[in-house]
Amino acid sequence: MNTDKIYAEAIANEYAPKNTSKVVALKKLDMRAKRAANIFAYTFGVAAALVLGTGMCLSMKVIGAGTIGFIALGIILGVVGFAAMGINYPIYKKLLESGKRKYAFEIIQLAKEITEEE
Questions:
Q1: Nearest partner of 94 among 43, 37, 47, 11, judged by Cα
Q2: What is the mean pLDDT of the segment spanning 51-75?
């Protein structure tokens, strides 16, 4: 095996003009269909984890005055954080389904074009 030839071809491919193919367009459409759901899920999940963590810190007297009021507030925040984490996935699934429905026609058409070419 000529490794110099393989290396030269790899470098040449790196500098060659890139043609956007239908497969690349299909991947971009797929990512666009899933983007909103992913952004929401990560953002909402991080916010829910922060609320839960704050609640835990308050209830364990790590932050706050350590009075009954702060402990009760911590327990409430913890429950709210757990609830938010629990509903994150169902909301993600709904948003993902909505995004897929929105781009389904374009993705199916492009996929048919790709499969008919080969």
A1: 37
A2: 95
